[in-house]
Automatic annotation (TrEMBL), chain A:
Domain F-box, chain residue ranges per copy: 324-370
Gene that encodes it: Fbxl4
Keyword Disulfide bond: no
GO CC term (a single one): SCF ubiquitin ligase complex
Name of the protein: F-box/LRR-repeat protein 4
From TrEMBL, chain B:
Protein name, entry field: SKP1 component POZ domain-containing protein
Transmembrane segments: none
Pfam families xref list: Skp1_POZ
Protein keywords: Ubl conjugation pathway
PANTHER family (UniProt xref): SKP1 (PTHR11165)
Biological process terms in GO annotation: protein ubiquitination; ubiquitin-dependent protein catabolic process
Gene it is expressed from: LOC108079733
Lineage summary: Eukaryota, Metazoa, Ecdysozoa, Arthropoda, Hexapoda
InterPro entries listed in its UniProt record: SKP1 (IPR016897), SKP1-like (IPR001232), SKP1-like_dim_sf (IPR036296), SKP1/BTB/POZ_sf (IPR011333), Skp1_comp_POZ (IPR016073)
Entry keyword Ligase: no
Ranges of residues in domain SKP1 component POZ: 6-63
Organism: Drosophila kikkawai (Fruit fly)
Family (UniProt): Belongs to the SKP1 family.
SUPFAM superfamilies linked: POZ domain (SSF54695), Skp1 dimerisation domain-like (SSF81382)
Length: 673, 141
């Protein structure tokens, strides 16, 4: 077994270089042999720097619309503008959802391969970049409203890998057990790391929050590295090694902490030492005196090293008693059932245990549902290749968030889909940056059995979805185009082709779509529609609303920020009369809503569970009380920014909230510190 | 009149007298009873189950009796864990229970057992640790 395991190049990756070499240096000092060249190499006397966000690369959702300055992701750029004030300010970054209201709505979906998700699953994220590369010592997130949603912080290192700097421990972590309602400078303790970065990704889970969480700014503090230019140069010259996948048996280093910690777990076959070294991505420099140094190390320091890193050397215990019935004695179908509960990472690990387990763990039945979303930071073309061999019975696929920054190639994705996509019923490609129009075309051609297609946050210019690329799909029941631009003609032809459509999300679809036309189409071709999200859609008028009133199966309708000042005419009345199953109705900022409309809501909204009346002017207490009395199933009532509902009414609302068992949201003025 | 008690014979020849209501949880017995039209004084043979395991199965049925609806998986897993711990805490006990539950068509026990085993497997960080835990030979060496 050779310590010079990987090739002949003198390539080292900066992460491992700084850690391991520093340790060697320390030993050399102890034993009185210095190596000046190495000492200089690891010398990084940069300076300490605090910087705010320079720009936003990506975000999964935002409350406002791109060109606006209210509640959009761009508000996270620069210095905090509101902190330490606490309250609902448009000058902050806000995400589209909070709490569990969307999970309780008719449009809720089920996660694919749910066992892959960690306890505190990421619901939303934002990727931001800063000006200077640093080794992070602190990341500060300025929360100015409903703090407590941050669950993970990632850094994109110069090695082109994502490293997790911090992760919320569990549900009982104090950070997520609802911190007090006050602005917060959230700076959790980061893992010990040598990553050099200027790009961060923040993961959020807001399922336990009372209302929207708002972020004012993000600060990255750390030491700059003085020899950054030479490191960058080396980066450009070498071919970067990504985590390697051996095809048989497959090894995936899927622990987020693996790269930064010396105590990482072994990842593939071989003795304990090669485990350790492989996980360190150790590639020693071959200097003239390198062999001597190595020899000295083996003789003097190896045992110390082994002890310090808790490698199970020759300490394997003999099993006391050979058991009469072994795990492998269980019948095949039971083992298959047990493995079906495992997350993907564990499944691959089990596959390395023995030949039998390799065979069982690669059974196609275990790959009928595949989700790489929780492994977004590791998903690569190679992984797709490996999975393609196993997933011969693939039905549901979720590649959301994967392949950013070039890790998955469009060609590989198309190949995967062509091989395995013909029986797909559910396909989620949210925020997949590798998608191009040719990929979408492949989806349209190969995946004609699709029932659900989700392409959230896939906005490009020109729009990805154009011409007739998806016109072949005729069985869709769910189409999610949240935050994705598309050519209106394509959408209209898809509506005509998919008569069984039940759920449609066109939130943030942009200015070019004439929603009245869409509504008219829906009323003609998609009468089985159950949920419709038109958040921030333009060009919806009373005429469109009347069209929507012909969708008698409608249970959920989100008209937030549509219509605006325009009069609703008869529209809302018709809608409420003809859609008795309506459970969720969002009229956020639909200022054309009149007193009569509110009376109609009370009179006809028998099934209403969630009602958002944010920003509707002139709502009187009578109308609110009316609605509370006559809508027995109501669970959520949002009265934020209703100018007639004053801060002093808070007690009355709290009373009503208890009495009618409805969660009532209202704007409060928070006294500045 | 159908008897309140049934006789089960395990593979080691022992006879166990059990309450009919209790063993209704075992799918295979339900099937047999349907065929025999309810009243039987004959002994029901269970060639694939031994006495120790049957005793544990009966204890499980006893715990499940109080739940009219199916208890949540996590609750069942906890009950199962305690049951196993009280009988020595060996993997072997769990394997026997799972195999028996499969043979006797006891879905709730099978669910809980397989899920428990999956949780155990998921808690290990490396293939080597798994091999040690379940005494599986490393084929590469």
């Amino acid at each position: 077994m050779s310590l010079l395991a990987y090739g002949d190049s003198s390539d080292t990756e900066p992460d491992a270089l700084v850690d391991f070499t520093a340790m060697l240096r320390q030993r050399q000092r102890q034993f009185g042999c210095g190596n000046k060249a190495q000492a200089e190499q690891a010398d990084d006397q940069g300076y300490y720097l605090e910087q705010y966000v320079l720009g936003v690369l990506d975000f999964s959702s935002q409350y406002g619309i791109d060109y606006s300055i209210s509640y959009t992701a761009a508000n996270v750029i620069g210095r905090p503008t509101k902190y330490p004030a606490y309250g609902d300010y448009p000058e902050t970054f806000t995400m589209r959802t909070y709490g569990d209201w969307w999970k309780r709505a008719p449009s809720a979906t089920r996660e694919i391969q749910a066992q892959n998700l960690p306890k505190l699953a990421t619901q939303d994220y934002i990727v931001v970049y800063f000006e200077e590369f640093v080794v992070p010592t602190e990341v500060v997130i300025y929360e100015t409203f409903n703090p407590g949603a941050v669950v993970r912080i990632w850094a994109y290192g110069m090695t082109k890998h994502w490293t997790c700097l911090w992760e919320a421990e569990s549900e009982t972590d104090s950070d997520l057990a609802r911190p007090p309602a006050d602005s917060r400078r959230f700076a959790p303790p980061l893992n010990n790391t040598a990553v050099i970065t200027k790009t961060l990704r923040i993961d959020f889970n807001h399922s336990r929050l009372n209302y929207y969480t708002e972020i004012d700014a993000i600060m990255l503090c750390g030491r700059t590295v003085s020899r950054i230019k030479s490191l960058l140069g080396k980066q450009q010259r070498q071919q970067l090694k990504k985590p390697e996948f051996v095809s048989l048996p497959v090894a995936i280093p899927l622990t987020p902490k693996a790269e930064s910690s010396l105590e990482s777990s072994p990842i593939s076959g071989g003795g304990p030492i090669s485990y350790k070294l492989r996980s360190l991505k150790f590639q020693p420099k071959c200097r003239p005196d390198g062999a001597t140094k190595l020899h000295e190390f083996i003789n003097n320091d190896l045992s110390q090293f082994l002890m310090e890193n808790r490698v199970e050397g020759g300490e394997q215990q003999q099993p006391a008693v050979v058991p009469s019935i072994c795990l492998t004695d269980l019948p095949f179908e039971i083992l298959l059932r047990i493995l079906s509960y495992l997350d993907l990472k564990s499944l691959f690990r089990v596959g390395q245990v023995s030949r039998i387990f390799y065979d069982i763990s690669s059974h196609p039945l275990l790959y009928a549902e595949l989700s790489l979303k929780p492994y977004w930071h590791l998903a690569s073309s190679t992984l797709l290749c490996t999975l393609a061999l196993r997933a011969t019975m693939l039905r549901k696929l979720d590649l959301s968030w994967c392949g950013g920054l070039g890790n998955i190639s469009p060609t590989e994705f198309k190949k995967f889909l062509t091989q395995r996509g013909d029986n797909l019923t559910h396909l989620r490609l949210n925020s997949c940056k590798f998608l191009n129009s040719s990929c979408i075309e492949t989806v349209g051609i190969v995946c004609d059995n699709l029932i659900e297609l989700s392409l959230r946050n896939c906005a490009t210019d020109p729009p990805l979805l154009n011409f007739s690329c998806l016109a072949n799909l005729k069985n869709l029941e769910r189409l999610d185009l949240f935050q994705t631009a598309f050519e209106p003609e394509l959408l209209l032809s898809m509506l005509e082709g998919n008569r069984k459509l039940k759920h449609l999300n066109l939130a943030f679809c942009g200015v070019s779509v004439n929603m009245d036309n869409v509504a008219a189409h829906l009323a003609t071709y998609n009468t089985q529609l159950i949920s419709l999200d038109l958040w921030k859609a333009h060009f919806l008028s009373a005429r469109g609303l009347l069209s929507l009133a012909r969708l008698h199966q409608l249970e959920e309708l989100d008209l937030g920020w549509c219509l605006r000042e325009a009069s609703l005419g008869d529209g809302l009345f018709q809608l409420l009369s003809n859609c008795p199953k309506l459970k969720k109705l969002f009229l956020s900022a639909v200022r054309g809503t009149t007193e009569r409309d509110l009376m109609h809501i009370a009179a006809l909204g028998k099934s209403l569970e969630q009602l958002d009346l944010m920003g509707i002017l002139n709502i009187t207490h009578e109308r609110v009380y009316d609605i509370l009395v006559h809508c027995p199933k109501l669970q959520l009532l949002d009265l934020s920014f209703c100018d007639n509902i004053m801060d002093r009414d808070f007690d009355v609302l709290a009373d009503w909230s208890r009495h009618f068992n409805v969660d009532i949201k209202s704007s409060r003025v928070y006294v500045p510190r | 009149m159908p008897s309140v008690f049934l006789q089960l014979e395990t593979n080691d020849g022992k006879l166990h007298i059990v309450e009919r209501a209790l063993v209704k949880q075992m799918g295979i017995i339900r099937e047999m009873l349907k065929l025999e039209c309810g009243d039987t004084t004959e002994v029901i043979p269970l060639p694939r189950v031994d006495s120790e395991t049957l005793k544990l199965l009966l204890k499980w049925c006893e715990s499940m009796k109080s739940w009219t609806d199916d208890a949540e998986v996590s609750v069942r897993i906890n009950i199962l864990k305690r049951l196993i711990q009280r009988s020595g805490g060996d993997d072997e006990v769990l394997f026997q229970l799972i195999t028996a539950a499969n043979y006797l068509q006891m879905d709730s026990l099978l669910d809980a057992g397989t899920q428990l085993l999956a949780n155990i497997i998921q808690s290990y960080d490396s293939a080597e640790e798994l091999r040690l835990r379940f005494s599986i030979a490393n084929e590469e060496e």
